[in-house]
Amino acid sequence: MRMAELSAESGVPVATVKYYLREGLLPAGERTSPNQARYSAAHVQRLRLIKALTDVGGLPLASVGAVLSAIDDDRTPHETMGVVQEELAGEPPAVSPEAAEWASERLRELAHRHGWKWHGEEDRTLANLIAALATAKELGHEKLADRLDEYFALAMRVAELDVEVVTGLTSFDRIIEAGLVATVLGDRIFTGLRHLAQEFVSRDLLDRAP
């Protein structure tokens, strides 16, 4: 298909497609003449994936580029999903050293109880988790730490559901794509369902609160 057809099929404007090609986010098409190229269904799928990561997943293009580079570098699905997690996490916010140490200790205890490997605070996902728990303490809601085991159990079940999405897939590209969808879009789906559930549960509980 030509550029115009690629744009129509993917729903991405021609100018944006050309930008993605220049930035290396989209592989070059098969050159048919000095000014023309032919594109395939794989290009459509890559554009739809970029669109999902940016529009729904909320990832900046720099992060999308890092994720796509991990895919194109032939890393394992596990390694690639590690890149996704790092990019989703972003830079952790600043918290007081005392609160961060308190949160880190609570999470180390959780890791020990459940046999979870402690990666250290250099892991951005863990650093953001520490910052979130530390912020709860700074706001006077450190009792959230009392529910960590229950949150961990729920997170493990969600993770199992996410991994089941790729079970049975044989294509590396499809495994990575399914993993990305489960992680990035799954976060949005779960957050939305959680908010709906909170509204449902809180209607009775909070209406009775003094």
UniProtKB/TrEMBL annotation:
Name the UniProt record assigns to this protein: MerR family transcriptional regulator
Coiled-coil residue windows: none
InterPro entries named among the record's database cross-references: DNA-bd_dom_put_sf (IPR009061), MerR-type_HTH_dom (IPR000551), MerR_fam (IPR047057)
Organism for this UniProt entry: Amycolatopsis iheyensis
Phylogenetic placement of the source organism: Bacteria, Bacillati, Actinomycetota, Actinomycetes, Pseudonocardiales
PANTHER family cross-referenced by the UniProt entry: HTH-TYPE TRANSCRIPTIONAL REGULATOR ADHR, REDOX-CYCLING DRUG-SENSING TRANSCRIPTIONAL ACTIVATOR SOXR
GO MF assignments: DNA binding; DNA-binding transcription factor activity
Domain of life: Bacteria
UniProt cross-references to Gene3D superfamilies, sorted A to Z: 1.10.1660.10
Keywords, alphabetical: DNA-binding
